[in-house]
Amino acid sequence: MTRALDTAGTAEALDRYRERAGQTLAGGVVSLVGGVVVGVLSAPAWTGDVVAWAVCFGVALVLVGTGALVIARRMRAVLAAGEWSAHTAVPVARRLHSPVVVLRSPATGERWPLTVTAVRWRQDSARPGPGGVLWWCGDPRTGGVLTRPHSGELFWAKPVRGGGARRRIVRRAEERGLPALATSLAAPSGPQRAGGGTVPRPKARRRGRWRWLVSASVLVLGACVVLSPDATSPADPQIELTVLSEEPDGGCEVRWKDPWDGRERTGPFTCDPDRDPQLADWETAFVVSDGFWKGELYRWDDDELRGPRAWKVLDGFAVGGALGLFAGLAGGAVGLWRRRVPRPPVPAAAAAVMAPPVAAAPPPSPTYARLAALAEQQPVPGPRRPEADVRSAPWWRVRGLRRASGLNGLLSAAACCAFVGGSLLLPMEGFQRVYLFGLGTVFLVLLALWSFRVLRGGAGAARLLARAATAPVPVVRRYALLHDPRDDTPVLVLFPAHGGPDDLPEAVLSLAPPGTQKDSRLGLPPVPTGTAELRGWLDRTDDGRPVVVPWIDDRPLWPAGPYRETGTPEATAFLDRLAPPPVPDPRTLP
After folding, report:
1. pLDDT tens digit sequence for 25-62
2. Which of 321, 318, 313 is closest to 213 using CA atoms?
């Protein structure tokens, strides 16, 4: 059995997932510490709202990052114990719930409804590609790892709870046409033995646990130093207290006059139980004059600080941070020393046991018949409101060219700046004006970035595409419309205009998705195969490739890249990703 973790790209995808989780957790910690520091060092009243938002945002990021790290650990265990298998899949949307995909077992035909665990902006990457296939590793009864073939994104999926919910989801998937057999994609193969009789020993992955421990310990120590009463209150006033009630252990309720606003305040305090009985209703204390603990009462008893219990908790965090810093530095030093020790390569006999060589058949050629059959399997896109005709309208009125040039982003940023500027003219309180100033600064930065993009090359690229789209003499080619499994970008694979089903492609042309952000396929040709008129050919990119705009059904499709002829290693790898080898029928296997 070939472990899923040993297949090409899986370990790298898992490392990226864990790195994103660590960055999210670090961002949450920074937001929490930053909010506390702002609350300590700032005196204006509006900083309370800033601290509240920063703390809430930090808590959310910490929870998301911690959960993602736990999921990454589960993924590694599952991928190290199992192997990939290809399954036909159908996504099923549920309101107010995480998305669900239904997999079909290629061996038994059983349906597996699985809930995808992912944040909202990553859920679309878990949907099956045009071939309706997902790779799966794990146990459908307990959970496992899902990925779209060649996408480089891993997702944790767990079984749907409730027998009734599972039956309803499977019924909806069958109504949408769950395919009976995966015929377009194969599960990935394992690593093969290297030449020379040995294979290199797998490089130990650096988890970075000591680095994160050191960073967290430094943050905790820094927060303790900033929040300590010695750092925030160098010179505190001493005031007199009136003891209202007292317990035998020294806990008492006192009343005092605030040294800053003159108001009388009451609160708990730790009185000296050994003071003179004549002073039973009198006590003295210091008041913290600045920082996070401003207004707190404390006293010194034989060089020991007597104050709120929160200060003792702060001391505990400081001790924990110091111990964590020592452990992180020691563990990091040991790990660095171990990584520098050279390790011999794995012998050939052991390598054969680890990854037995598999005699794989050569992949089928990307002929017109094969790619056209793959294109016919994808769902038919819906129509979209037509855009202005580039032959009679200036380029800035054409929706696709505005998007390509960055003019849409520039106009949106300008509108937001105008809105904030108009709002500042209205009467409002000081903290509200501060918020608007901050928001306006962000919009001004975005306006400057979009302006730079438009002036730097966006407008020139749009004019270049408009000139290519209105070129007089077209070149007719047959096409097959496929989608890149990595990011679902539409791709035209172009063939000679007059030929047969065994013709090989001449070139590939990536397209800018004409649809909306919610459904990027809107506006694509309803027929995935046919003929296209290629206009342009006169202008070229910096690397010498021609600029070509395809016309299908008397409507241009704006390219997202240059015209790439086949025969180069880049184009060959791109075609292999678009049309990988098919999955064999398990009923025909020995």
Report:
1. 888 888 877 776 666 555 455 455 666 777 788 888 88
2. 321
